[in-house]
Amino acid sequence: MRRAEKIFREHDVAPEVMSSALYRQLVQDWVWTQSRPSAGASLQRWSRAEPHFEGFSRPADVVDAIDAGNHQRKDALLLALLRLVQAGEPLASQTVLHAMLPGLAGLAARTTPKLPASEPDRAEAARQLVVEEFLESAAVFPVLRRRQRVASNLLLDTVKRVTSHTRQAVPRPFNPAALYTDAVPETDRDVYRAVRAQADGGAPSHVDGIDPDSDLLTVLTWAVSEGVITTAEAQMLADVYLPSMPDGWGFDHVAEAVGVSRSAVKMRCSRAVARLSAAARASVTQTA
Q: What are the residue ranges of CATH 1.10.10 in the chain?
């Protein structure tokens, strides 16, 4: 287990050594939440609407089940959480964020060099940006239309928002107080979701170019917007090569999820990577 995963999987005692004020607050709030009677009551209430939560006594149980589950189990639990997020459940937002924090921490680290040099603490600003944009992505995620590879899709949606923000260079600090279980949602989620749903199908990728320092998710997003690879191919490559995957590449996981052989997945990846590499080299050469 990588260091980031260990930090974000301490459900009962918050790690004392942590350089990020944001991560420290998120982890401390998470540990505190596990012992709140209202958290257990929320899980019981959720299970009446979402059977996937039956048998869970605290939010940490949900995160552990996502970590341990196969692709179908992970997708089912994440989709159930997202439905609750979009119904205005702050504890669901906190839980899905915590489940995804190891991958989001990696994205934040890769985002840091892209922020303006004038930013006082670029690393912390990148963490705040990634967490904020992830929660925005979760709030409008199309749960009825995108029911597979949910974690990868959430990360891809987040990197689109992060890339758009870094190009605009407008600071938007994240306030974790909105995740508290007794907080009242500040916006009308129904109206918000309805407006975003109308624009979801034609939303631009906000990635208009790449360079040698672009991370994988940015390159995949650009490649889809340019028609180099399909969305399905981008999802497959993300599932196989994302740094947040367990030890080793994810060929076996993808093969199990889509019901094909490992060799078939490797062949599809090889073909997609060949097209992607040629297009990326051409793009970088043109912009050099």
A: 216-287
Helix (H, G, I), strand (E, B) or coil at 50: coil
Helices (H), 69-173: 71-86, 90-111, 122-140, 150-168
Per CATH, domain 216-287 is 1.10.10: yes
Give the separation between CA 7 and CA 9, rounded to whole angstroms: 6
Selection from 21, 32, 73 nearest residue 52 by Cα: 73
Longest dimension (CA), the chain: 59
pLDDT tens per residue, range 162-180: 887 776 544 444 455 444 4
Residue with tokens 């899905």: 96
Residue indicated by tokens 């891809």: 156
| pLDDT at residue 260 tops 50 | yes
User: What span, in angstroms and rounded, lies between the C-alpha atoms of 161 and 233?
Assistant: 20
Euclidean distance between CA atoms 86 and 101, whole angstroms: 19
SS3 84: helix
The overall average pLDDT reported for the chain is 78
Asked if residue 97 lies in contact with residue 27, where contact means CB atoms within 8 angstroms, the answer is no
pLDDT of residue 184: 39
DSSP 202: T
- At 6-26, the pLDDT tens digits run 788 889 988 776 778 888 888
